[in-house]
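User: Sorry, folds how?
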Amino acid sequence: LEGHAFSRSMRHFGPVDLAETEAILKQQESLTMGELTRILELDERFHLKLCSRCGNEEINAYLAKIWSRIR
């Protein structure tokens, strides 16, 4: 499901979306394993951002539900 959403989303990703995604990755890279909770929060944000432009709110809601259960 995430792969499908990602594929659809990338067709609509713009420079601002890309910059936001890169900022999330930079934040993750600056953290240590002692900050695992924050790393996981950023990982969730990263994945949801990658799929955010898929154009299907039902898919986005389902992915958010899945990610909330993973944490």
Summary: The first helix runs from residue 2 to 10. The chain has a mean pLDDT of 94. DSSP finds four helices and no strands in the chain. The CA atoms of residues 8 and 38 lie 28 Å apart.
